[in-house]
Structure formats: C-alpha cells, structure tokens
Specification:
Order of helices and strands: HHEEEHEHHHHEHEEEHEEEHEEHEHEH
Structural class: alpha/beta
Shape: globular
Number of domains: 2
Number of helices: 13
Largest sheet: 9 strands, mixed
Strand content: 15-25%
Low-confidence stretches: none
CATH architecture of the largest domain: 3-Layer(aba) Sandwich
Bound molecules: (2S)-amino(hydroxy)ethanoic acid, manganese (II) ion
Number of strands: 15
Helix content: 25-40%
CATH topology of the largest domain: Aminopeptidase
Distance between the termini: 25 Å
CATH superfamily of the largest domain: Zn peptidases
C-alpha cells in the first residue's frame, strides 16, 4: 500500500455525485464504509484493532498496557459536502508514516497507535468532536444521549442502528493514561503555509470558538394576504442578525458565520413561524470572542423586539483556547529541524480538532500540510500530492523521534 493507493481507495466513500463533496456523517452508512476501510488497513498491517466505548477506532503496534504510547490519527467524518482532506489526510498519513517507519526498519521503544476519532465535525448532531469529548470526559453521557439530528433521531438510536452500544459511552481515563503524546496531521485550513512557501507547519494554538443557536419565533401567516404592518416575521430579524454578526466580527478582528438555517414551515408563500439560525464564531482570545457573541445577541434581541418576534439563544458547542503542549511542540520542531530541506513554521489556527479537545488531558501536537487555496469545508479543498508526501515523511520523522530508538 502507498499513500496514493490508500487515498484512491478512500476517495469515493461517502462522496456525493451531485456536489463532489462528502457526506460522511456520524453513524451513517458512509461512516460505516470509512470505518471498515480503517479496520482493513489496520488488519492488513497486523495491528491490534479495537473500537473503544465511544466508537473511536484504534490500531495498536506493541502492548498498550506498557504505557507512554505515541498516538497519531485524525477523523474520517465530514461536514456536509466537505472536502476530501479534512480528517482523512491525517488518517491516511498515519498509516503511510507507519509503512515508512517499517521501511526504515526502526525499533519502537514505545507502543504506537493510529486512531480514527468518531464524529469530529458534529455535522449530524450539532456538537463537534463527540468521540474525543466523550473519551476526555468533556461531554457527559446524559449530554450525549440528548443529542438529536434534524430528523429527530437521537445519538443513542443512531449508534444502536450502527451496531454500537450507546450505554457503554463515557470518559475513558484508563485509555488516556496509556498515552504519552498524540500528534494529529491535518490539512491546513487557511493559507499561511501557501503564503510562507512551506510544505508543513506545526500548530501553536487553536482559537476559542463555539456554536450558538438563535431561535426567532414569529407568527405564521399568508405571504400574499398579510399586510406588512401586521406581520411578525422572524426572517427579517434573522437577516438583520446575520449582517450584525459580520459587522461585529469585522469590528473585533474575529470571524462569525451564520452557515446553517432551518425555517418552519419553510413554504415559499408562508411567512415563517420559526427561523432557526446557527452562529459559528471564533477569535484569537476569549475576551474578543465574548465581545462578538454578546454584540450579536444584543443586536438580535433589538431586531426581534422591533418585529414583535421572540428570541431564544442557546450555546450548543464551545471549545476554549487551546495552547498546544510547548515541550511537545518544541520537540517536533527539533526533530523536523534536522531536515535542512524542510522549513517548518509554527502557526495558529481557527479550526477545531480532536487534538485540541485532548490537549487538556494529554500532551498533543499538530502538523499542518500546505493547502494552496486555504479552502476547506468545501469540495474544492485540496493539497498537492508532493505536499501530502512531505507531510507523511514529516510525520514519520516525528513518530520515529518520539517512539523509536
Ligand atoms: O469546525 C471546525 O473547526 C472543525 O472542522 N470541526
Ligand atoms: Mn473540519
Ligand atoms: Mn478536521
């Protein structure tokens, strides 16, 4: 198996022929196909394959009980019509890096594990990083059991339908206690490496970020016969709030996005009764993020009041700022610094990752691979093959430096 052949195998799984994007949502058939691919890759290499209580997939080399394991991997699920690289690049690269280390004939002094964390994108149930949050004890069983998708299917029912036991989920401190370091390789979701002319980068931090649901409730009525003055139209308040979010973010040097909306009854000729919009906002620090979200909510309440519309705002997902482990970050820079042909800058990101969730429990680090357009969460997401191969070799160097003699 080569990076290219694994990539080609994974590429068609869960891909929409209409958009060319991916629809690999947690506990669906597409997710099951990707999971089967992971298991096959693990067993083809004689790795000890297991699925943990939260549905995360692990492939071990060596005895996990020995402790101080070095773990690498990422996720295989996607956002709706996401790109091919966000998540899968880290998983495929971890198998390719292990193959490279086998070719080098290295001797491992620590256990090594490759991992696929489930439901990182939160595309179906609205919460990011469910698999790693559960494992880290950042999400309670009760909170997880309350998650439902747009069709009203709960996370437990979805897990059961996929053959997993939803009553087994929960924190897994014993597993985390066996891990000395987790390194996640990921396509960069931005253009820093393209602008600096580098193939690979090391992560410094993840911006604090979250998701807030804005429920604007008005009065359903006939679009053709209701006078404008008689309307309580939640769509107007929603539209004004979207513009307010952009304004607040620009003022604060942050980002804010209303990317998802649900309208009831969603008829062309019906004034909505309910407009539900989801805000994703991120900023370099907590104070700035608080300023933006507070500003958006204040504006939304003013707009709602002006239109006789009720508003509820619910924080659905939140990740505080992540400073990756400095010692591990510097160790990666030392290891990769030996390759004089490879400059490896350290850069921050506004994108969330499982490595960010786990960073509160174990030392974690990230490697980024150049994305020439910076585009992500889109079918247009791309990374050049030679940059991907450079990422594999860098990951192999890091794993060798951390886990081998
Ligand atoms: O939303 C994020 O930053 C990540 O892709 N889950
Ligand atoms: Mn993503
Ligand atoms: Mn990702």
């Amino acid at each position: 198996m080569t990076f290219q052949s694994m990539w080609a195998e994974l590429l068609p799984l869960g891909r929409s022929s209409a958009s060319g994007g991916y629809r690999r949502f947690a506990w669906t058939g597409a997710d099951a196909e990707c999971r089967e691919w992971f298991r096959e890759q693990a067993e083809a290499r004689g790795l000890a394959y297991e699925v943990d209580r939260n549905g995360n997939q692990w492939a071990w080399l060596g005895d996990p009980a020995a402790g101080d394991a070095v773990v690498t991997g990422s996720h295989l699920d996607s956002v709706p019509d996401g790109g091919a690289f966000d998540g899968p690049l880290g998983v495929v690269s971890s198998f390719a890096a292990l193959d490279e280390l086998s070719r080098r004939g290295v001797e491992f002094t620590k256990p090594l594990a490759l991992v696929n964390f489930g439901d990182e994108e939160g595309a179906r149930f609205g919460l990011a990083c469910v698999g790693s949050r559960l494992t880290a004890g950042e999400l309670t069983v009760e909170q997880a059991h309350r998650l439902t998708d747009a069709d009203g299917v709960s996370l437990p029912r979805a897990m059961e339908a996929a053959g997993y036991d939803p009553d087994a989920i929960g924190a897994d401190p014993e597993r985390l206690a066996r891990i000395g370091a987790f390194v996640e390789l990921h396509v960069e979701q931005g253009r820093a490496l393209d602008l600096s002319g580098d193939r690979v980068g090391i992560a410094s931090a993840i911006w604090p970020h979250g998701r807030w649901r804005f429920d604007f409730r008005g009065e359903a009525n006939h679009a053709g016969t209701t006078r404008l003055v008689d309307r309580r139209d939640p769509m107007l308040s929603y539209a004004e709030t979207v513009l307010a979010a952009r304004r607040e973010a620009e003022l604060a040097g942050a980002v804010a996005t209303f990317g998802k909306i649900a309208v009831e009854p969603n008829g062309v000729n019906a004034i909505p009764s309910l407009v539900r919009g989801w805000l994703d906002s991120r900023a370099a620090d907590q104070h700035t993020l608080d300023l933006v979200v507070t500003g958006v909510e204040k504006a939304a309440r003013e707009y709602a009041a002006a239109h006789g519309v009720d508003l509820d705002v619910v924080r659905e997902s939140f990740t505080p700022v992540v400073e990756f482990d400095h010692a591990l970050r510097d160790e990666l820079a030392r290891i990769l610094g030996k390759d004089t042909d490879l400059r490896v800058p350290v850069l921050g990101t506004g994108a969330g990752h499982d490595a960010g969730i786990l960073s509160g429990r174990i030392p974690t680090a990230m490697l980024f691979v150049r994305n020439p357009t910076g585009v992500s969460h889109s079918p247009a997401e791309h990374a050049a093959e030679d940059d991907c191969v450079a990422g594999v070799l860098a990951l192999a160097d890091v794993l060798e430096g951390l886990a081998c003699r």
